[in-house]
Design a protein that fits this description.
Layout: H1 4-11, H2 21-40, H3 50-60, H4 64-71, H5 75-78, H6 87-102, H7 104-110, H8 113-145, H9 155-182, H10 187-198, H11 200-213, H12 218-240, E1 242-248, E2 251-254, E3 257-260, E4 263-269, H13 276-286, H14 290-295, H15 303-311, H16 317-338, H17 341-350, H18 362-394, H19 405-443
Antiparallel strand pairs: 1-4, 2-3
Helix pairs in contact: 2-9, 2-10, 4-13, 6-7, 6-8, 6-13, 7-8, 8-9, 9-10, 10-19, 12-19, 13-16, 16-18, 17-18, 18-19
Amino acid sequence: MASSADRMAAGAGFGALAKADELKKRLWFTVGALIIYRLGTYLPLPGIDPGALADIFSQQSSGILGMFDMFSGGALSRMTIFALNIMPYITASIIMQLMTAIVPSLEALKKDGEAGRKMINQYTRYLTVLLATVQGYGIAVGLESASGVVDDPGLFFRVTTVVTLVGGTLFLMWLGEQITSRGVGNGISLIIFAGIVANLPTALAGTLELGRTGALSSLLIVLLFVMAAAVIAFIVFIERSVRKILVQYPKRQHGNKVFGGDQSFLPLKINVPGVIPPIFASSLLLMPVSIINLTGGQAGGADWLVALNAMLGRGQPLYLLIYVSMIVFFAFFYTAIVFNPEDTAENLRKYGGYIPGIRPGKSTADYLDFVLTRLTVLGAAYLSAICILPELLISKYAVPFYFGGTSLLIVVTVTLDTVGQIQSHLLAHQYEGLVKKSRLKGRR
């Protein structure tokens, strides 16, 4: 027989949304913030010739620059105020998380509670400004090097470009934080999600147009959509899969009554870090050569960088090797940050819980670490396969980036996370309603 909690969770559907005023406010705030973000992706930088920029971008969009444009929701190809998108902030977060694991003072700040986390977040913001300034200046120089793109090159153009791009990145960083605190879902992930989803109709129309003109066969297009559906189903299956570890609590007798003796499960996801490793890997892989792509090889003395960009093109061995290596590294690194076996074992010991057949304390921590390591190996292999196998197929054909494994992984994972948070808000609203009813009955 289902428990009251299970029945309540089953009833926490979207039909209860009309009664959840707080959740509706959060949803409207999230939608409004994403609309503001999309409007900003159409505000161009001053002093840019859109036609000349489109010609250069069309020649270079087959490589890593096309993926950067996908993450920015087309803002890079249009060279708008949000051309850098949120990537400098993600890169700064990566650097700070790596530094907290290396620098003792930052590690102490991390363990210092809320005050320490606020200080680390402030350092991350400062680093974001620095990275965005460097990348913005590089883009300004690259645009000036490309013939016919900048109407009036010079110091004023460089300053205005840097200020505009840095301001756009900081605004998106602030907007993402506001979505996380006042909306629904993770703000940074939703901004990337919105950029990908907004261009999906265009990508779909472009693919069908390739089929109409004969550039792609009808069979290949059907196989592409079947592959995308299979990848989505596989992602949902893995993201919903957990490894349950049985936790036993001993019985305790107080007088004539016996308490405890319950069993519970410690759920460990196969993919603990979620979509973070592909985003981190893409962010670091995009940064070194994105500026050189804008010059189209016209900048003097950059031949070796142009050759590097060719090797980092879609489906190239070097690109695939670096991409997989970064995904595996960040999968293990972020899992170590999110889940600490020693802290979990200590918490179980404090509350009297134990894993059957495993001694409390260090043995429990070692066992959890062993299980988590095996799960992370599976999770890293899953992320690598999802992100790389479609790349190998799509690199041989002129198919848009939006049908790649990375974009599908981000869209599906962020959707599952956001829907889960909506259901949590609905469940909390139902609990509040029950508490209010019980109080009214008590007063009567």
